[in-house]
Amino acid sequence: MLQIIKKISVGAIILLFFPLIIYFSNWKWTPNNFFLFKKYIYWITITGNYPWGVILSFITFLYFFWMMNIYIKNLKIFLVITSFIIFFGQISKEIIKNFLKIQRPIVNWIFNNILFIKDFYFFPKEIKKKIIEIIFEKYEKIPIWLKIYWGNESGFSFPSGHTIFVSTWALLSIILLWPKHIKILTLIMIWAECVMLSRIALGMHFPEDLLAGVFISWILIILIIFLIKYFFKIFFLKIK
Known about the structure:
mainly alpha; Vanadium-containing Chloroperoxidase, domain 1
């Protein structure tokens, strides 16, 4: 078990690398970072949104199951465990967000540079969406799709739910795929890192949000490893 914890800890450090660089560089997000507003960054980020995140989770689950020497009777257990990790990660994210109530970078920029809107987060979603659209109406270089996306994503910032989602799959992949399936593992790690960076690029999160998201995933994976080792022992079966 200690060896597995060491492996996922190394994976967590890898995921933290770019957010830490951004954090210590004191780089600040502004809507003038037009070079970041590319459609492919949007497509990367929505792989962590519903329904694409659910679809990817299902595909990844099937791949893991296929790669592992698991009896069919254990399929339900494996599905329940992986679903629990993802679900509990998102629930914990919502609890922390609504408790701390930290503004997203885009909202923080609006309050500091354009207009402080009292009780902004108490407005209905449609009103918040309209406010953001009006504020950025004069920014012609910002694409329409991004203005719409900002309007739809006007919730709180800390921690990053996307980061919890992708880093959970990345750390789980390290347990299951290292070292026999390094190519697939590398692709999953790159995907996770790209989704995390896309959240910063689009003004959805601060680096601290990503750091917290990775840490939450790391804790969840360690807890679930303990359950699996002492109750189900699924991850310790032979990998094909």
